[in-house]
């Protein structure tokens, strides 16, 4: 399976999963204040060949709900307790792009990050 992700800033991503299921995900996060963000999540699943209905078949709905919608709630349990770390321990392969993104994002904040 291949994953193609396109990011727009820090809080918006469109991902295309090519291979096992060929679905698309949109994930967006908009900060409301220093402690709260609104999160939006949408899944596009390809229609089964010959299906002309406006609603997905029940087996597709059940699979999407079980495999993808449930994971959002699992992730929220993790994200709820995340805190900003000024100098995170990153894998060598991740350090350069993550720190470049953080440096780029600083232009959007008037105040230094609280640790």
Mean pLDDT: 83
- Run of helices and strands: EEEEHH
Compute the CA-based radius of gyration: 18 Å
Q: Report the uncertain regions.
A: none
| Helix-and-strand structural type | alpha+beta
Strand arrangement across the biggest beta sheet: 1-2-3-4
Total number of beta strands = 4
Q: What percent strand? A: 25-35%
Largest sheet: 4 strands, antiparallel
- What is the share of helical residues? 25-40%
Morphology: elongated
Total DSSP helices:
2
The end-to-end distance, rounded to whole angstroms, is 38 Å
Number of domains: 1
Question: What does it look like?
Answer:
Residues 9-109 form the 3-ketosteroid-9-alpha-monooxygenase oxygenase component-like C-terminal domain. GO terms for molecular function: oxidoreductase activity. By secondary structure, the protein is α+β, with helices and mostly antiparallel strands. The chain has one domain (2-82). The chain is 31% helix and 25% strand. It is built from two helices and four strands. It has helices at residues 58-79, 92-105; strands spanning 2-7, 12-18, 24-31, 37-44. It has a four-stranded antiparallel sheet, covered by helices on one side. The protein is elongated and about 55 Å long. It starts with a strand and ends in a 10-residue tail after the last helix. The mean pLDDT is 83.
Give the SSE layout:
Elements: E1 2-7, E2 12-18, E3 24-31, E4 37-44, H1 58-79, H2 92-105
Antiparallel strand pairs: 1-2, 2-3, 3-4
Pfam families: KshA_C (PF19298)
GO molecular function, one term: oxidoreductase activity
Domain 3-ketosteroid-9-alpha-monooxygenase oxygenase component-like C-terminal: 9-109
């Amino acid at each position: 399976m291949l994953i193609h992700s396109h990011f727009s800033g820090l809080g918006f991503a469109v991902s295309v999963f090519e291979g096992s299921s060929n679905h698309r995900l949109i994930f967006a996060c908009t900060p409301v204040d220093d402690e709260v963000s609104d999160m939006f999540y949408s899944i596009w699943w390809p229609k089964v060949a010959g299906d002309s209905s406006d609603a997905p078949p029940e087996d597709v709905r059940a699979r999407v709900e079980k495999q993808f919608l449930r994971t959002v709630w699992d992730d929220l349990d993790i994200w709820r307790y995340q805190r900003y770390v000024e100098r995170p321990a990153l894998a060598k392969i991740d350090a350069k792009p993550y720190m470049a993104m953080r440096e780029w994002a600083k232009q959007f904040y008037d105040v230094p990050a609280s640790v």
